[in-house]
Amino acid sequence: MKKKPRKLNAFAIRIRELREAIHMQKKQLARGAGISDSYVTRIEKGDIIPLDAVVMRMARMLNTNEAELVMLARREKAPAELRDIYRPEEIVDFLNGLHAANTGERAGNMVPVLNLAACGEWMEANDKDMPPGEADYYHPMATRDLNAFIVKAKGDSMSGGRIEEGDLLLIEPNRQVENGDIVLARLDGQVTIKKFHRQGKNVILQPMNEKYPPIVLGPEAEDLRVYRVGRIVITL
Fold it and tell me: Which of the listed residues 77, 102, 121 is the one where a domain comes to its end?
């Protein structure tokens, strides 16, 4: 039986499009990115997605935005159920223009940025209001949630979900949280980023790195608040 060809992923397609747009040979891209010709071939066939450092070198060779290409690569490596929160800004801009009339989503909202949020152990929230009334720093982001705010990830407990330290996480308090969602959890003045699961009367805050144990909270944690992570913006 003839083997079915592998379905190309968005990263593979994007790399080939960018390379052919500037009439660059595979060996030129390979030399500039510090990889082999065969490695470039495997990338464009969808067999492999390289590490961030390699993606950044490729982006510089291809004259494209490094963060956009890294985000696209991480999106393809992330678990399927989490891919919707990885939206490269060029794609976001396109979707905003295409769907604004139907969704009410407004491009370019200035969203307040709060202090760091731990992707590991609980971290002090410094008595910040969530959602905040004001902030010292704002970042443009498309969102329909007027109470949206942004936190910067710290730590590596969510690296299995491709959330790395320094990434900006858009928190949308008005969106319903469901099992399997990535959330910002707050309890007793502390915060953490985890994958949310409710089992009976218990809440499990699950890391996505085997080095960290899950946090299990019973009914006594009545002050627990969870806010859905609606989008990730990679910062390099």
Answer: 77
Higher pLDDT: 204 or 102? It is: 204
At residue 97, the pLDDT reads 44
CATH number at residue 213: 2.10.109.10
Look up the domain containing 117 and give its range. Answer: 89-233
- Kindly report whether the global pTM for this prediction surpasses the value 0.85: no
Please, are residues 109 and 127 in contact by the beta-carbon 8 Å criterion? no
Catalytic residue among 152, 154, 194, 195: 194
In the prediction, which pLDDT does 90 show?
Answer: 45
pLDDT at 101: 39
Average pLDDT, the chain: 79
Residue 154: active-site member? no
Residue 42, classified by CB atoms within 10 Å of its CB into exposed (0-12), middle (13-18) or buried (19+), is middle
Number of domains in the chain: 2
Give the Cα separation of 57 and 33 in Å (integer).
5
Burial readout 140-174 (b: 16 or more C-beta within 10 A, e: otherwise): ebbbebeebbbbbbbbbbbbbbbbbeebbbbbbbe
- Catalytic: 157? yes
Task: Give strand ranges (E) for 1-102.
Answer: none
Instruction: Give the up-direction half-sphere exposure of residue 169: CA atoms within 13 A in the CB hemisphere.
Output: 29
Output the CA angle 99-101-104, nearest 5 degrees. 90
For residue 84, tell me if it sits in a domain: no
Query: Which tokens belong to 100?
Result: 């604004």
Active-site option among 152, 157, 159, 195: 157
Residues 142-170 have pLDDT tens digits of: 777 878 888 888 888 777 767 888 888 88
